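Data card: per-record layout.
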Amino acid sequence: VSSSDTLIATYPFSDVTAGTLFLRGISLNALNKFSEARESFNKIVANYKDSPDYGNARVQIGFTYYQEENYETALGYYLGVLDDGLTNIDSSQVFFDLISIYSELKRFDEALAAFNNIRFGTTYYAPAFGKVAKVYAARSEFEQGENFLNEILEKSQQSDEVYYTPDVYFALADLNITKNDFRTAVNYLTKVVEDTVADQSKDILKLQSRYARGILNYQIDNYSGAITDLELILNDNNFQSRFEGFVPNATEKLALSYSKIGRSEEALQMVNAYREKADTPEEKAKWDYAIVNIYYESGNYRKAIETAQMLQDIEGVDDEILLNSIIITSESYQKLG
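The structure for this 337-residue chain is written out next.
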């Protein structure tokens, strides 16, 4: 951003000013500074209508509004770009974003229609059919969603140019998770993980699949399977850096899986290590609740009651955690008779 500012200030009337403004806006978008990014794109729209960046600047203005959850305004910008028939834009990107906007606005028919304008083989195609599958799930149209994805799978398997098979299986898993068919979802995720055809571009998808499969294996009481997947991803630096937000949930489910097979001491050590690193009372309370769960799942009901009651005495505990700890206390008393 700073280098772009220097170039613009030094050569304000240069032919490359529009391009520099565009790069500045893109950089600001990456920093989540959307209003500042919009200022750069608006300067292109106002002053450089003959620039090859003009159309994409208008697209990016719509994107900034979308990121700010101002969906109606974003929609106006995207449709305006399409109505004006602007060249030098990636129409697949526009229609991909329109799927997201229409979905947020609950205009699902228009979201489905937007997909038909995304070119097969573009970088937007796979994430787009994943979004469309979510639209079908949101309408509880699971059979239609599966048929839609299977058609793409067949088309992909007939193509020598692209390989969407693991992406389709991941979307099918997501669809089955939504309808609580966890075992079928695990089967599809296993196909992603065990795919031997995909190149390195699918490595992140495989990591996501291992995470999801590990969580689901815990849900269906396959604790050894959960441990295998969750141990692997929690020891993977790529997962730790790219999916930092998933780490606490993966850690908790791994600890609970340990407790289910008699490794409660390992579970407690793991959770206590994260609790000590917690920066806020709210974070500590979440890990305290995980400890309550470990005691309960391992059958140590007296310690579950003791820890839960200590948690309930802490001021400012999240209402959901408080309620769940009370439920566990009640269930533990019932287990003790």
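Known properties of this structure: The two ends are 66 Å apart (CA to CA). DSSP finds 19 helices and no strands in the chain.

See the next section for split statistics.
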